[in-house]
Specification:
Layout: E1 20-24, H1 27-35, E2 40-45, E3 53-57, E4 69-74, H2 81-84, E5 87-92, H3 95-104, E6 122-126, E7 132-137
Parallel strand pairs: 1-4, 5-7
Antiparallel strand pairs: 2-3, 3-4, 6-7
């Protein structure tokens, strides 16, 4: 990381995790899509019946608390991706195998590209609400 370090006042506690929360039109449908990427529902409200909120985690992560997490919350308003400006960037241990698996399950994915910033490769897709999901090959200099 470059740039000058910013010191934190001693009276402020440190942040040990961040979890994105996105608006979706159907929590169950979105959870089903993210299950294809290794996520499972860890909690939902209400506990029984169709959820209006869910927390997703990756049970296969070495440390699920600090691994990939995502919260979904239902909205009835029209979603406008241009207002959200959200893009998810995920890292996979085997990019080609994951892409092949997703295509085999009918998910529309892009070709693997090899940009200068990621010569190991990446591909993209859209989730059920149109959010851009990019998947990159994990490597020595990536998560």
């Amino acid at each position: 990381m470059s740039g000058a370090a910013i010191s934190q006042p001693e009276s402020i506690g440190s942040i040990n995790a961040i979890v994105a929360m996105i608006y979706v039109t159907d929590v169950e449908r979105s959870a089903k899509f993210y299950r294809l990427l290794g996520f499972e529902i860890g909690n939902q409200v209400p506990k029984a019946g169709p959820p209006h909120w869910a927390w997703l985690y990756a049970p296969k992560a070495a440390d699920w608390k600090r691994g990939p997490n995502l919260m979904l919350t239902r909205t009835e308003r029209a979603l406008n991706r241009d207002e959200h400006d959200v893009l998810f960037y995920l890292y996979a241990t085997d990019l080609v195998a994951l892409r092949n698996e997703l295509m085999g399950r009918g998910v529309a994915v892009s070709e693997i590209g090899y940009p200068d910033y990621l010569p190991e490769g990446e591909f993209g897709m859209k989730d059920p609400d149109g959010y851009c999901v990019m998947v990159a090959q994990a490597g020595k200099g990536t998560p």
